[in-house]
């Protein structure tokens, strides 16, 4: 009997600040208005009869909607400005974008391909990768393409899911080894650069204090 197909992986997307603030404003609109009416009644400003209270509540609601709406729009505008600044930083910072894309790919695939692949993904997530290195970023893109292609194939594999999972695990193991090797190379290059700069500074400025 073929195993049941795994649910399709979903890409985890960050919620924009502006969208979050809009949701908060809508969610708290009615509770805030009810609290306003309660406070108004507690201060003795509400009429004592229903016939007098209803027009009073409507007038109060008009002012409330105006002030609440303006305050919400101001907060949403500030949040949208923060979203734009964040997007600009990511556009100008390929390392940050690579880190985020890797974390989203790993999170979306961790429970999709079985325990062997999940263990490899956890190991890759724990690696101290140098995303400032262009070769590392290229490997991360290859990893994302592998997971996307394997996920799409798994949805259509029917009874051939086990071989696909084994093939995906083998490819991930190879990519993990390549990432580890590149991480070591980046570390060696960083150390060489630090030693070179230290030697340069010593030669340039050390003789002034001899």
User: How large, in whole angstroms, is the Cα Rg?
Assistant: 29 Å
How many separate domains make up the residues? 2
C-alpha termini separation: 82 Å
Helix and strand pattern? HHHHHHH
The biggest sheet amounts to: none
Could you give the count of β-strands? Answer: 0
Shape: elongated
Question: What structural class should be given to the helix and strand makeup?
Answer: mainly alpha
Number of helices: 7
Low-confidence stretches: 1-12
| Helix content, binned percent | over 70%
> How large a portion of the residues is in β-strands, by DSSP E?
under 5%
Mean pLDDT: 80
Question: Brief description of this entry?
Answer:
The chain crosses the membrane at residues 20-43, 63-81. This protein is an all-alpha fold and 210 residues long. The protein is built from seven helices and no strands.
Give structural notes.
The protein is mainly α and 210 residues long. It has two domains: 17-92; 95-209, no CATH class. It is 77% helix and 0% strand. It contains seven helices and no strands. α4 runs antiparallel to α5 and α6 (134-155) packs antiparallel against α7 (161-205). The longest helix has 45 residues, at 161-205. The chain starts with 16 loop residues before the first helix and ends in a 5-residue tail after the last helix. Mean pLDDT is 80; it is low at 1-12.
SSE map:
Blueprint: H1 17-27, H2 29-42, H3 50-92, H4 94-109, H5 115-125, H6 134-155, H7 161-205
Helix pairs in contact: 1-3, 2-3, 3-4, 4-5, 4-6, 5-7, 6-7
Protein traits:
mainly alpha; about 210 residues; 7 helices
């Amino acid at each position: 009997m073929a195993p049941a197909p795994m649910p399709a992986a979903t890409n985890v997307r960050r919620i924009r600040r502006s969208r979050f603030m809009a949701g908060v404003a809508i969610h708290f609109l009615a509770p805030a208005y009810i609290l306003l009416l309660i406070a108004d009644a507690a201060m003795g400003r509400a009429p004592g009869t229903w016939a007098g209270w209803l027009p009073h509540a409507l007038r109060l609601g008009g002012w409330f909607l105006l002030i609440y709406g303006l305050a919400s729009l101001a907060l949403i505008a500030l949040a949208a400005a923060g979203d734009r600044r964040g997007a600009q930083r990511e556009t100008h910072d390929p390392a940050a974008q690579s880190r985020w894309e890797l974390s989203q790919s790993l999170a979306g695939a961790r429970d999709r391909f079985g325990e062997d692949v999940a263990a490899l993904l956890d190991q890759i997530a724990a690696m101290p990768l140098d995303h400032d290195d262009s070769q590392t970023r290229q490997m991360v893109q290859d990893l994302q393409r592998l997971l996307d292609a394997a996920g799409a194939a798994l949805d259509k594999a029917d009874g051939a899911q086990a071989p696909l999972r084994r093939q995906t695990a083998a490819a991930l193991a190879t990519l993990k080894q390549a990432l580890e090797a590149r991480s070591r190379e980046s570390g060696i290059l960083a150390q060489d650069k630090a030693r070179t700069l230290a030697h340069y500074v010593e030669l340039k400025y050390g003789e002034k204090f001899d």
